[in-house]
Design goal:
The complex is a heterotetramer of chains A (390), B (47), C (571) and D (376). Chain A has 390 residues and is mainly α. Chain A is built from 14 helices and no strands. Chain A has one domain: Formate dehydrogenase/DMSO reductase fold, CATH 1.20.1630. In chain A, helix 7 packs antiparallel against helix 9. Chain B is mostly helical and 47 residues long. Helices cover 64% and strands 0% of the residues of chain B. Chain D is mainly alpha-helical and 376 residues long. Chain D starts with a helix and ends in a 6-residue tail after the last helix. The chains are: A mainly alpha (390), B mainly alpha (47), C mainly alpha (571), D mainly alpha (376). Chains A and C meet through helix 2, helix 10, helix 12, helix 13 and helix 14 of A and helix 1 of C.
Chain lengths: 390, 47, 571, 376
Amino acid sequence: MNTHDNGAKNTLLTPGNVITAIILLVGLFITVLRFTKGIGSVTALDDNNPWGIWISFDLLCGVVLAAGGYTTTSAYYLFGLKHFRSAVRPAITSAFLGYAFVVFALHYDVGQPWRLVYPIFVSQGTTSILFEVGLCVFLYVTVLAIEFSPAVWEWLGIKKLRSLVLPLTIPLTILGVILSTMHQSSLGALYLIAPSKMHPLWYSSFIPVFFFISSMFAGMSMVIFEGILAHKGLHGKMDALHLKQADGVVLAFGKASAFVMMGYLFIRFYGVAMDNNFKYLFTGYGLWFLVETIGFVALPAFLYAMGARERNVSLMKIAAVITVLGVVLNRFNVSQVAFNYQLDASERYFPHWMEIGVSVFVVTLIITAYRFICTKMPVMYEHPEYKDAH
Amino acid sequence: MDTVFYSYHDFMLATKTITYVLMGLGLFGLLGFWLFLTGRDEPIRKY
Amino acid sequence: MKNQSSLLRRMGVFTSVLIAFFALGQPAQSAAKATGARANPRVDLVTLGSGEKGREMPLVKFKHDQHTQALAKNGKSCQACHQTKTVNGQEQVVFSFKETENLAPSAKKEAFHASCIGCHTELAVAGKPTGPTEASCRSCHNGESGLVSSKESMRFDAMLHNRHIAAKTLQVAGAKDNCGTCHHTGFDAATGTFTVKRGTEEACLTCHLTPAQKARELAKNPEAADAFGPIAKRTPSNQASHAMCINCHLQVTAKNATANSGPAECAGCHDTKITQHYAPAQADIKALASMRLDRGQPDAVLMFPATTKKEDKQGGMLPVSFDHKLHEAAATDCRTCHHKQIAACSSCHTLEGTAKGGFVTLDKTMHSQTAARSCIGCHNQATEQPQCAGCHASLPKRMNENACGTCHAAPVGVASEKATPAALSALEKEERSRLAAATIQARNNRTVTMVAKSDIPETVTIGILSNEFEPSVLPHGKIVQTLTAKAGESKLANAFHTESTTLCQSCHHNSPASKTPPRCVSCHAVDPQKATSGVPALKAAYHLQCMTCHARMNQKPAETDCNGCHKPRVK
Amino acid sequence: MQRRKFLTLMSAAGLGAALSPASANAAATTSFNGHPEAVGVLHDSVRCIGCRKCEEGCFKVNGQDLPAFKNDPSAQRPDFADLEVLNKKRRTNCNTYTVVNRYQTEKGPVYRKLQCNHCQEPACASACFVKAFVKTPEGPVVYKPELCVGCRYCMVACPFYVPTYDYGSAWNPLVYKCTMCAPRIAKGQLPGCVEACPKEALVFGKRTDLINIARERIQKNPELYDAKVFGESEMGGTNWLYLSPVQHTELAQPELGKTSAPELTSGALGAVAMVAGIWPVLLGGAYAINKRRTKMAQEEAKEAVTTAVATTREEAEAKLQKALAKAEKDKDAAVAREVKKAREEAIQETEAKFAPPQAPDGESTPEDASGKEGDA
C-alpha cells in the first residue's frame, strides 16, 4: 500500500513493507489453517478456557479502543465543542475500522461464523448479554458506516448520497452514544454471569459501569494516541485546520480524561468496598489490582492533569499512551487474569503464537486500511468542494 | 392469555423480547415526537 | 521512506502492548500461586518474643530439645537459661526464661540477645559447634524457614497414670499410696507447700485452666472464682504441668541416674508417638492394665433420673444398673465421662437442666446420639469399629422405643411390686449398690444362643439378575459364622444382642425376626423403574448390603472387583 | 379506543401473553421454583464406589454421537475397567459426557460424578444469544445444534464447567454436554448412567421426590452425610442433586450462592432499556440547550452591536447638530467638513469595539456557530 505514495520501485523492499508482507502472509496461512483444521489447531483454547486473546484483545480491547467515535462526535455535535471539528472524521474513521475489524476478527473466534447473523435474524436469545452486545455492535457498525460514508461520497464525488446522509447526523450521533453506552458496558456485563469464576477484585455488580466509564477515557486517549501516530505517518495529509486544532484536541480530551479517570479510580475502589474485598488487596492479585488502578489509572490521570495545568501537550501524549495501555491491561485482567483464577496453573490459558499472529494480522489490516482511507479520502483534511459545508 | 413461568429464565426471555421491541419503537417514537415538538421552531434547512 | 518507518514504529507500539501485558501479567499470577518454604515439622518449637511493639523481625522459633542436648554435652544444666525456686522443700526449675517475667519488652529483648549470643559466642571461642552469633539476625529471626510445630497435647492416659501409681520412686510420707505426689487441693506460696486430701482428687485441668480458658474467664470477670478459689491466682495448666512433671522427673534422675524417671525434653510428652517412646515392659502391661484408680468410687450403682423438684423426687423411669468398674477399664480416663469435675452426673444434669450443667438435661446427657460423653453417643462410636460396623453401618443409629428396657431394667431379685422407681430409690445406698451388682452379674452370665447351624442354608445362589455374569453364590453359612465370632468377642455386643436372631436382622432387616425371613425380592423390585420411592431395587439392594458390610469390615473383594463375586458369563 | 388498538397491535405481534397483570409483577412477588414435574438425578457419594459403570452406561447411549466416534467405527473405545484414571483429575470433554473423580478426604476416598447439572435456571441458556439451550419442563436442559454459532459464552457462563467444545472440527464445531438422556426419558427409560449404576448411587426421579429422599438419608444417618444437599439451591437450584459424606467443597463442588444466572444479569439488562429511554432525552436536551445557547449568544451580540451603533449614531448626530449650529453660526463650510469626518470616525471606532466575540483559538467561524449539519 505504501508504494502508492512513493511510486518508485526501489522502495518496495523497505523494512516496513517486508514486515507487513510477512505478517499478512502468516495471517493468511493461519486463516487457512483455522478454516480447514478447526479452532483447536491454531489456539490454546480448551474446555476450561473458551475465550482467549481473540476475545480479550480483538473484541474487548478492539471495541473499547474504538470508543473515540462516540466521545468525539458527542463532544462536537451534541455538546457543541467546536474545536473538535477536525478530530471528528479521523475518530469516526478509526471507530468504524475498529468495529469492522472486531466483526472480522470474530469470524475467527466463533465456531460457525456464517451463523453470526443468527442472533439478530433467526433466534433471538434476548436474555443474553451477548445478544445485546451483538445487536448493538451490529447496529453501531451500521451507524458508523453511515457516519463515515460522507468521506466516501466526497472521495467518489457522489453529492446526492452525501446530502442524503448529512441531515441524519444528530440522530445518528445520539443513537451512536446510546448504542455505545449499551455495548461498552455490556462487554463488562458479560462477566456478571460468572461470579464464581472471577477473582473478587475484578468481579463487581458494577463491572458494566466500570467498562462504560473506562471506555470514555479510553476513547479520548485513543484519539490522542492515534493523533500521535497520524502526525508521524500522515502529516502531509492534514489541512491547516487539522494542524491548528490538533493541540487543542489533545488538551481538551486530556483534561476531560483526567477528570473521568479520577472518578473511575474512585468507583473502582467503591466496588472493592461494597463487596468487602479489602482483604484481597494484600495478596499477589491485590498487588496486580493496585498496579492496574494506581499505575495505569491514577498515574496517567495525574500526568494529564499536570499537562492540562502547564499546557504541556507532550506530557499529555505520554499520559495517553499509558492510559491506552492501562485500558488494555484492564480488559486482559478481567478476561484472562481474573477469569478462572481459582484453577490450577496447569489449567490456565496462555495464548498460542498463532492466536497472537491473528491479532497482529488484524491490527496490521486496520493500519493498512486506515492508511489507505486517509491517503485517499478527505479525513484529515476537508474536501475542497465541500469546505464550507463540512 | 396468562402464561405461567416456571423459571425466571423463561420470564426474562419473554419480558426482554418485548422490551427490545418496545425499545426500537420507543427510539423511533421519540425521534418523531422531537420533530413534532420542534416542528414550528424554524424550517428545516436543506442542503 | 518516512511512511515505512512510521509503520514500523506503530507495529512496535502494538507489539509492546502485547508483550507488556504478558511480561507483567505472569509474575502476578505466579506470585499468587507461590507457596512458602517446605514445611519442616518439629515437636520442640518454642516461639520466643519480647512482646515489643512495632518489631521489625519475625519471632524466633526456638528448638528447645536441640538446646537441651547441646547444653548437656557441654556440661551445662537447665540453669543456663532458667532460674530456680524452692517448692515443697525442693529446688525447682522455673519454666520461663531467666528473670525476664517482669521485665519491660526492650529489656527482655536485651536479655534474650545477651544470653543467646553470649552463650553461642562462648562456645564459638572454645571452638565448639554452636549457633548464630553477632550480626546474623536472620539465622534466628527466620520467618519463612518452614519450621512448623507438630506439638501434640500431652495425653496422660490410664496406662501412664497406672505407671505413676506403681512407681516405687514416688512416695508420700505417711500415706499408703502416692496419689499426693501430684494431686493437691491447695498451695501455700509463702511456705511453698502443697495441701493434700485423699479422696478428693480431680484432674489437673479442673483447677489449672489452660491459658486461653483462664484469659477468657478473667475477661468476663476479673474476680471470677469457682469451687477451688479465685481464678486469677491459679497457675495456668501449661506452667503447672511443666513445673510438676519435669521437675519431678529431673529430681528422680538426679537422685538415681538409672531410675526410669520419665522424660524431661519436649519430644518425651508432646510427640504423637509418646506411648511408643515410653511403652512399659511387656510383662507390666497386664498388671498395669488391671489396676484401678482408687478414689472411693463404687463398683456398681443404680442410677436414678435426678430432678430438682422435691415433689417429683422419684422420677418415672426404672433405674439403670450401671457397671462403673467395667466402664472405668473401658474409658481412657475419668474425664471420658466426668468432664468438669469428678462428681455424679446428676449433680449438674437434672431432668429440668440447671445453669451449672449448661442446661443440658439429664436425658440428653445420657442419650445424645452425637455427644461423645453420653452413654448412647459413646456406644454408637463403639459400633464403628470394624467388627461391628459391617452390620451397624446399615442400621439406623437412632434409638428405637423398644431399646429403653435394655438399660432401664428392674434389678434382679426384687419382687415385681417393689421394683418401682419410688421403692428402689428409698433403699439404703449399700442395698442399691448390691442390687446393681447382682443385676450386672446376671447380665454378664447371660449367653445368647445363635440360630442352630442346621436351621440356616450354607450357601445361597443369587441368579435372578444374572445377565453378563453367572449367578452369584453367597457363602451364607460362612458369613453367619464370621459375624457370630466377631460379635462374641465384644462385651458390649453380648450385652445388647439379646435375641438369637439379632445378627440375622442386620441383613434380613425391616421384617419380624424369624428363621425363615422373606426373600429380598419381596420388597426390592427387580426393575428399578417399578421400585417404591426410597427403597432400592434388587440389584442395588444386594450391592448396598454386601459392599457396605465388606468395606466396613475390611473384607475382600474390593467394591470395584466385579469378578470377586460374579463369574463373567462365557458368551 | 387507543388502548384497545394498542393491545390489538401487541397481540398481533404475539406479545400480549406476557403483558397480562398476573405476570407483570411476577419478578417482584413470585418465586420461580422450576416445573413441579421436572425430573432429575440424585448422586449419593456415600454410596458411590468409583466403578465407572455410569461412564460406560453413558458411552453406550451417547458414544455414537460423540465427535471421536461419530464417523469412525475403528476409533478406540475407552477402557472403563481401568480405574487408574481415577488418580487423575478429569473433566468432561466433547468425547465424554460424564466422568467420576476421586477425592481424598478424612473419610477416605470419596467419588463424585461430573456431568451437566441441568440447572433450574441454566446459566448456559441465560447466556446463549441464539436460544440454543432450552430448559425443558421435563427437566433436561437440551441443546439445539442447528442454532449454535459457537461463541462459547455458555462455557464462560456455566459455573460447573460443563459445556465442552469440539475445537477439532472446522465445519461443524458444536458444544457437547450431557443431555440427561432426554430422548430416553421421553420413552420412559432411565438415563444411561442411572441404569448402569450397580448401587443406586444414582437415583432418577422427580426433583421434588429426590430432595425428600436426600433429606431422609441425611436424617437417618446424620454421621454418614454432610447435612447439605448440593444443588438444592445453588444458582437457583439444579436438577442433579448431590449427597456427600464430607463438605461438598472437598469434592471440588464450587461455593456458588443462591443467586441464579438470570438474576445476575437482569440488572444490567434492565439498564439497557433505561439507557435507550433516557439517553435520547438527555442527549437531545444537551444538543438543544447548546444550540439555543449559541443562538442566544449570537443574538445578544447582534443586539449589543445594534444598540451601540444606535447610541453612537445619536451621540454623533447631537455632536453634528451642535457643530452644525456652530458652523452655521460661523458659516464656515470647512469646519462642517471636519465635523462630518469626526462623526464617521466615531462610528467606525464603536463598531470595532462591539465586533462579535472571537473564538478562543482566535478563529472567527460564523458557519460553525450555526451548526448547519445539525439542523435535522
